[in-house]
């Protein structure tokens, strides 16, 4: 079952973040992930959630997404994202298509 990482980012240090954004796609691909939504400014339709930028990554499974998040080689990049943004990340599983 497909899984999705949803990131809500507020960028504080653009130059640092741009390096992260340039390099991280190789690690996403390494774990068979792909961008579904890439850093767009969302339009809030309901509620009081105020995300700044949203990224949605699709992986073939929850295990692939978790492998991406725990990849030792990607940890310095995640540290760079943490130091250049305020970010929130959630992992959700998709649902099976209706028959």
Detailed description of the structure:
The protein has a 4-stranded antiparallel β-sheet with strand order 2-3-1-4. The chain is of the alpha+beta class and 99 residues long. The protein is flat. It has a single domain, classed as Alpha-Beta Plaits (2-Layer Sandwich), CATH 3.30.70. The protein is built from 3 helices and 4 strands; from the N terminus they run βαββααβ. This is DUF1330 domain-containing protein. It holds the Pfam family DUF1330. InterPro entries: Dimeric_a/b-barrel, DUF1330.
SSE map:
Elements: E1 3-11, H1 14-30, E2 34-40, E3 53-59, H2 62-70, H3 75-84, E4 85-93
Helix pairs in contact: 1-3
Which features does this protein show?
99 residues, alpha+beta, Alpha-Beta Plaits, 36% helix, flat, Dimeric_a/b-barrel, DUF1330 domain-containing protein, DUF1330
Short characterization:
By secondary structure, the chain is an alpha+beta fold.
Number of helices: 3
Major sheet attributes: 4 strands, antiparallel
CATH topology: Alpha-Beta Plaits
Low-confidence regions: none
Number of domains: 1
> Which bin fits the share of residues in helices?
25-40%
* N- to C-terminal distance: 15 Å
Radius of gyration: 14 Å
Mean pLDDT: 95
Write the element-wise H/E pattern from the N-terminal end onward: EHEEHHE
> Which CATH architecture is right?
2-Layer Sandwich
């Amino acid at each position: 079952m497909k899984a999705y990482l949803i990131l809500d980012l507020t960028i504080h240090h653009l130059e640092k973040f741009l390096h992260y954004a340039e390099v991280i796609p190789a690690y996403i691909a390494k774990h068979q992930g792909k961008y579904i939504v890439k850093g767009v400014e969302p339009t809030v339709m309901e509620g009081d959630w105020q995300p700044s930028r949203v990224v949605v990554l699709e992986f073939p499974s929850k295990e692939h997404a978790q492998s991406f998040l725990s990849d030792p080689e990607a940890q310095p990049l995640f540290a760079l994202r943490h130091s250049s943004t305020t970010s929130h990340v959630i992992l959700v599983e998709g649902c099976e298509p209706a028959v």
